[in-house]
Every structure is written in structure tokens, then in C-alpha cells.
Amino acid sequence: MAQTSPQTLAVNPTSLAGDGEGQREVVDSATLWKVIFASAGGTMIEWYDFYIFGSLAAIISTHFFPRDNPTAGFLLTLGTFATGFVVRPFGALVFGRIGDIVGRKYAFLVTLLLMGGATALIGFLPTYETIGLAAPLALVLIRLVQGLALGGEYGGAAVYVAEHAPDEKRGFYTSFIQITATLGLFVSLAVILGTRLLLGEEDFKEWGWRVPFLLSVVLVAVSFYVRTRLKESPIFSKLKAQGKTSAAPIKDSLGNKRNWKVILIALFGATAGQGVVWYTGQFYALYFLQNTLKVPFITATIVVAAALALGMPFFVFFGSLSDRIGRKKIMLAGNLLGAIGFFPVFWAMKQNADSPVVLTALVFVLVIFVTMVYGPIAAYLVEAFPAKVRYTSLSIPYHVGNGVFGGLLPLIASSVTVATGNIYAGLLYPITVALITVVVGGIYLKEKSDVRLWDELERPRES
């Protein structure tokens, strides 16, 4: 494998025989880090926008649903939260098509504006006491828009960075996109905590909860400006110049039997398990602390935020490690450890509910499982699909795995817990899905960390 210098960290500058139409383009180190910063920053803001709602679910339920049944209101809020996940695959199709036809950059500029606008609207939305049932209906509609936007964002950012990065360090560079989901959750918790401490608990619950939503306007404006200064990815630009882009990426993705096989293997052998491990280790852990163990809001928020901060460097560690030993074994090991470890970790949380330090250590363990399944997955998904339908194709299994299997986890697990009265019963769902992923992935998932993305511009690419 060719070595790259510090000044040419991205695409290997190998010339092709013939007329040079497939010449590989070199991306210098400064440009590559600019690409990563702009892509990761914007994606982090979109996750921040998306997760403020989940982080404030307990408070939002008191403003947008009747207060006479707090448990029902909380579950309805989780259901509203889940709607944003359910539509993410549709957003993947809509914006994936745009990204594969028009370009990666244009698609994730549009998704950023949609997400920012929808989030700000929540900050202005009248409550149930003011407009009655129109309040929760409007909330659901806004969540649908957020879900559509996020369905298009991740694929664009992951593909954009991967198509700038060198083949031998693809896992390392794309892992910075993988940090963004957890970083978005961390920032949402930090902003919520800071606002609550500044305003006081009573004012925060009454009107201060709107501030984190309104802050999104400023964050989106900055990110949009940075992204407008980016160029299209070199691989997509070359693909378009050669006339090799797809005119119908949805049809080419879903109408191709071979591509369907890759999508289904990616879903059940990677992203479904990754989704449930992610949401169990972060969101469900937060809900478990707040609503089951009755840990005070501020304490629970600090515990989870501290664990996320400690765990975030491991996304890069495992992304980089996957460049050396492969993506498959790391991702499946994370799923297996999650399936084995969920019960004992949540049991230990119950036994140490009065010790924030121990709770932080236990949530940190869950976050490590998250970093193992999530750190390498962007690189794996990029490698699994050809460039002409890459945005569309990888977005489908990612957003079904995360949006459906993962996004529905808080609602499913909380509902099972309420129905059975067993505080650990909800863990059966993520454990089952993670084990299915271990089995399917162990049998069918192919290791493709040696794929060289520019090769398909030289010759037909095998699936």
C-alpha cells in the first residue's frame, strides 16, 4: 500500500493509464481537516437539535400533553420522540437521491436548514394549555420534519469525509463524524444543565426549557456559513465528470437484487445492533436514572454528560483500530459485550443509585460498548456501496437500524417496564437485537476495509 506524506493525507495520487480522465485527486492535510471540521460541526448541531427533545422529554410531557396522568404523558412524549426516528429512512431516500444526483454538499446544506428551522419552531410553539390538541399535533409534525432532515444529514457527512480521506485511514477520519451523535447529546445536556442552573428550576420548567431550542438558530447559521465554503467531494466530482452518476439512485439502490442483499446484511448484521447499543448506553441510561431510579435531574444529567465526555475519544480509537484489524470484529465485539453486559451494568446502577461517581463509571462502560459498534461503522458503510448510489444506499440501513431499531428503544423498553413492573424487563429488547446482529454479522458480513474507493472510476466495482 502506498504511503502518504503529511501534506497529502487524503487520496493516493496514483495516475491511471489512458487519457487521465480517472486521475486521482490529492487532498492536502489542511483541506481534509477543514472538511472534517465543517462536516462534523454541522452534523453535531443536527444531532444537538434532534436530541434536545429527548433530553427534555420529562419536562416537555408536562407542557404538550394533559398533566392528569404523568406516566401516560411521558410515554406519549417518547412516542412523539420516536416519530422523528421512524421517518428517518424516508429522509434517507429523499436526500440520498439529491446527494447522488446533485451532490453531497448541496444535500447536507438543505438538511441543516430544515433541522435548524424545525428546532427553533419548537422553542416558539404554544403549549397544550394554550391551544389544546393542536400543540401535540404540531409537535409531531415538527418531529417529522426533523427526522426527514436527519435522515439526509448523516449519509452526506459520512460519504463526504470518506471521499476525501485516504483509503488506509478511512476509519480514523470518518470516526470524527461518529463522535458527532454523542457530542450532540453531550452539548444538549450541557446547554440544558447550564440554562437550568442559570434560571433556576422553577423558571426553567415554566419557560426556560425553550432556550436550548432557540439557541439552535445561532449554531445553524454559523455551520451553514462554514459549509457553503466547501467544494464537492473529489470522487463525486470525478464521477459526475465521467458521466457515471446515477439518474435514478433510489431505483438503482432498491431495484437491484445484489444491492438489496448488501443493504439487508448491513442492516441486520451491523446497524440494527449498533442502534440499540447506542440508545441503551446513552438515552435509555439517562431515562433509567431519572425515571426509574429517581436520581435528581441535575445529578443524572451530570453523570451521563461526564461519561460521554470520558468516552468520546474512544470513537476515534476504535475507528483508527479498524483501519488496522478491520471493522467487522470490533463492531460485533461491541454488540456481544453489550448483550452480555446490559443486565449486570443496569443492576449495578440500581445498587449504587446514591453514588454519582459509581454511576458515572457504569455509564462509561456502556459508552465504551457504543464506541465499539459506532466508531468504525461509517467507514464500513461507505465501503459497502458503489459511489453512484453510495449516499442513498448506505443511508437506508443506517437510518432503519438507528431510526427504527434504535430510535424506538426508549419507547419500547419503557413500555415493557411499565407493563411488567420489572425495571430490567425493557433490556430484553436491545439484548435480543444485539445478539441477532452478532449472529447475522458473524455469518454474512464481509470485511471490506481494504476497499480503495477510487478504483471504481478505473474499472467496474464488485459488490
UniProtKB/TrEMBL annotation:
It is found in: Cell membrane. GO terms for cellular component: plasma membrane. Residues 35-449 form the Major facilitator superfamily (MFS) profile domain. InterPro entries: MFS (IPR011701), MFS_dom (IPR020846), MFS_trans_sf (IPR036259), Sugar_transporter_CS (IPR005829). Residues 1-22 are annotated as: Disordered. It is a multi-pass membrane protein. The chain crosses the membrane at residues 72-94, 106-125, 131-151, 172-195, 207-226, 262-285, 297-318, 330-349, 361-382, 427-445. Pfam families: MFS_1 (PF07690). This is MFS transporter. Residues 1-15 have a biased composition (Polar residues). Keywords: Cell membrane, Membrane, Transmembrane, Transmembrane helix, Transport. GO terms for molecular function: transmembrane transporter activity. The lineage of its organism: Bacteria, Pseudomonadati, Myxococcota, Polyangia, Polyangiales. PROSITE patterns: MFS, SUGAR_TRANSPORT_2.
